């Protein structure tokens, strides 16, 4: 515990623009920076704002490849963890609710050793979030009956869901998962290159 507190102190005194986050009912971050990217010397990184409440809890982040969507949503996840453990965060202002669970479905390649394709990996991780162990087909029934991992005290980041299959199938899957996740009342940051999802 002493090591952790010492690390927090060193981080805050050696870095500029770290603030103590407030505990509130919403996520509100002004000029937030990805904690790891913040350590890389570069003047190209642009700080971002984040905002989510129970009324605006599902955020769709769209943009072309290499535009920073993944860095953006990973930044909110890392800053949330930092706030939960009592650390200052890289921002000019930050407030977070108490989060009971953090889920991340982030881009990953296939695993030849485990005989798992990119698509299968995406579906397994997503099914775990929705608490459907074997088949995604019954997730709607499971969500309605309350049998799920994710709930209103959860935060989830979903990165490029559906990229492991065709564009048409990927869009259909992303839309279906987005609809299912929106019913959980969790705070969701959903990064996608499907522009149609941004209009949903």
TrEMBL record:
<keyword id="KW-0238">DNA-binding</keyword>
<dbReference type="InterPro" id="IPR000432">
    <property type="entry name" value="DNA_mismatch_repair_MutS_C"/>
</dbReference>
<dbReference type="GO" id="GO:0007131">
    <property type="term" value="P:reciprocal meiotic recombination"/>
</dbReference>
<dbReference type="GO" id="GO:0030983">
    <property type="term" value="F:mismatched DNA binding"/>
</dbReference>
<dbReference type="GO" id="GO:0005634">
    <property type="term" value="C:nucleus"/>
</dbReference>
<comment type="similarity">
    <text>Belongs to the DNA mismatch repair MutS family.</text>
</comment>
<feature type="domain" description="DNA mismatch repair proteins mutS family">
    <location>
        <begin position="154"/>
        <end position="170"/>
    </location>
</feature>
<dbReference type="InterPro" id="IPR045076">
    <property type="entry name" value="MutS"/>
</dbReference>
<dbReference type="GO" id="GO:0140664">
    <property type="term" value="F:ATP-dependent DNA damage sensor activity"/>
</dbReference>
<keyword id="KW-0067">ATP-binding</keyword>
<dbReference type="InterPro" id="IPR027417">
    <property type="entry name" value="P-loop_NTPase"/>
</dbReference>
<protein>
    <recommendedName>
        <fullName>DNA mismatch repair proteins mutS family domain-containing protein</fullName>
    </recommendedName>
</protein>
<keyword id="KW-0547">Nucleotide-binding</keyword>
<dbReference type="GO" id="GO:0006298">
    <property type="term" value="P:mismatch repair"/>
</dbReference>
<dbReference type="GO" id="GO:0005524">
    <property type="term" value="F:ATP binding"/>
</dbReference>
<dbReference type="Pfam" id="PF00488">
    <property type="entry name" value="MutS_V"/>
</dbReference>
């Amino acid at each position: 515990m002493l090591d952790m507190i010492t690390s927090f102190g060193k981080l805050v005194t050696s870095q500029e623009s770290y603030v103590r986050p407030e505990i509130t009912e919403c996520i509100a971050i002004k000029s937030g920076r990805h904690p790891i990217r913040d350590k890389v010397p570069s003047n190209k990184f642009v700080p971002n704002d984040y905002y989510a409440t129970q009324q605006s809890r599902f955020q769709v982040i769209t943009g072309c490849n290499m535009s920073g969507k993944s860095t953006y949503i990973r930044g909110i996840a890392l800053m949330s963890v930092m706030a939960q453990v009592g650390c200052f965060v890289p921002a000019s202002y930050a407030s977070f609710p108490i989060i009971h669970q953090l889920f991340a479905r982030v881009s990953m390649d296939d695993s030849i050793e485990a005989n798992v394709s990119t698509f299968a990996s995406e579906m397994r991780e997503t099914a775990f979030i929705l608490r459907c162990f074997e088949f995604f087909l019954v997730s709607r029934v499971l969500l309605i009956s309350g049998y799920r991992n994710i709930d209103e005290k959860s935060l989830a980041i979903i990165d490029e869901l559906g990229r492991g299959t065709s564009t048409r199938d990927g869009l259909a899957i992303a839309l279906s998962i987005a609809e299912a996740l929106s019913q959980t009342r969790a705070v969701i940051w959903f990064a996608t290159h499907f522009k149609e999802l941004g209009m949903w």
